[in-house]
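Design request, tokens follow.
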């Protein structure tokens, strides 16, 4: 038996059309899972699904519309032809501003996407998972969940909230067959990070200097960690936040 196989599983991945969401989707499909990608841009989702192949589908949806979370889950299950057994709360928005310049409205917008959107979807999938006594819920946390990073107060608050959500949910539902975990990615080589770093070689050098492995990660590094956490190989793992960061979070 391949304990890392996800054959027979169906994963709903928010923010799945690009970046880490798409990286996780690639690894899930390679491990045998069906995936349903969720996002706001249909063209991006279509391109991602065409790359992923027959095991992939998509639903266009804005997760900030929390009252429609149950409808999203129903649409995803129709698209997949199977109940959702893995939820990946990955969608999010970033805001880089000094704390004293971050408005209440901006702060609320970040929390609405990360925290309330993830909570609503979690509520929507849990009854089915508990009824089947089988499920995995995965949150994409951040280095901002683990230590202080300047100019991201709203983002850090949202990602830190994920840590509390993971631990509390794990204590409530793990005995009913649903495991809840998070991944905290470090600096990952992506189109977004390239735009941020290519024009700032000094910043990139500082990042590499404080990363013990002295390199950026790849989306697949996060994807394979997600496969592990959602597979039978991690059947006794719940309530953890797993850094995938080349060692950044150990400090030195």
């Amino acid at each position: 038996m391949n304990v890392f196989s996800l054959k027979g599983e169906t994963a709903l991945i928010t923010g799945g059309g690009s970046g880490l969401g798409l990286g996780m989707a690639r690894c899930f499909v390679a491990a045998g899972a069906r995936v349903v990608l969720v996002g706001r841009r249909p063209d991006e989702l279509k391109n991602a699904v065409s790359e992923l192949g027959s095991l992939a589908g998509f639903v266009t949806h804005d997760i900030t519309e929390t009252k429609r979370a149950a409808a999203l889950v129903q649409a995803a299950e129709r698209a997949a032809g199977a109940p959702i057994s893995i939820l990946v709360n990955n969608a999010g928005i970033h805001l880089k501003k000094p704390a004293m310049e971050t408005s209440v409205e901006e702060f609320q917008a970040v929390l609405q996407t990360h925290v309330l959107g993830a909570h609503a979807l979690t509520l929507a999938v849990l009854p089915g998972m508990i009824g089947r006594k089988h499920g995995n819920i995965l949150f994409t946390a951040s280095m901002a969940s683990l230590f202080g990073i300047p100019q991201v107060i709203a983002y850090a608050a949202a990602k830190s909230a994920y840590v509390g959500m993971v631990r509390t949910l794990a204590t409530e539902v793990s005995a009913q067959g649903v495991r809840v975990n998070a991944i905290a990615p470090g600096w990952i080589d992506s189109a977004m990070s390239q735009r941020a770093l290519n024009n700032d070689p000094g910043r990139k050098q500082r990042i590499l200097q404080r990363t013990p492995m002295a390199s950026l990660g790849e989306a697949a590094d996060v994807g394979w960690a997600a496969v592990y956490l959602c597979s039978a190989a991690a059947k006794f793992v719940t309530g953890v936040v797993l850094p995938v960061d080349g060692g950044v979070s150990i400090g030195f």
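Comment from the thread starter after seeing the answer: thanks! The radius of gyration is 17 Å.
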